[in-house]
Amino acid sequence: MGFDPNGHPPRKYAAFYCLCNKPSAQATIAKGLVEGTLKIPLVEPAYPFTEQGAKDMLTAQAKGAHTGKLIMKIE
How far apart are CA 40 and CA 31, in angstroms? Predict the structure, then answer.
């Protein structure tokens, strides 16, 4: 959801908030997941950790047509 808590209204959470180690913050995040008010971002299909996989992933990124996170799978 990015690092700007105001960047994706009506969401109030930003990526750095999810990395917080305070038990109260973790409880708030867990509660949101359980209640369905906080959603985990989509992850697109993983690209293989190869030269072609990297090219394909960068091409997908440049097109901007993806709706989730682009990842490479290292086996």
Answer: 13
Instruction: Supply φ then ψ for residue 69, to 5 degrees.
Output: -85, 140
User: How, if at all, do strands 72-73 and 47-48 pair?
Assistant: parallel
Measured in whole angstroms, the distance separating CA 35 from the mean position of its chain's CA atoms is 19
- Confidence label for 1 from pLDDT (cuts 50, 70 and 90): very low
Strands (E), the chain: 47-48, 72-73
Instruction: Give pLDDT tens digits for 9-57.
Output: 666 655 555 566 778 877 887 888 888 887 776 677 889 999 999 999 9
Structure tokens at 27: 């409880």
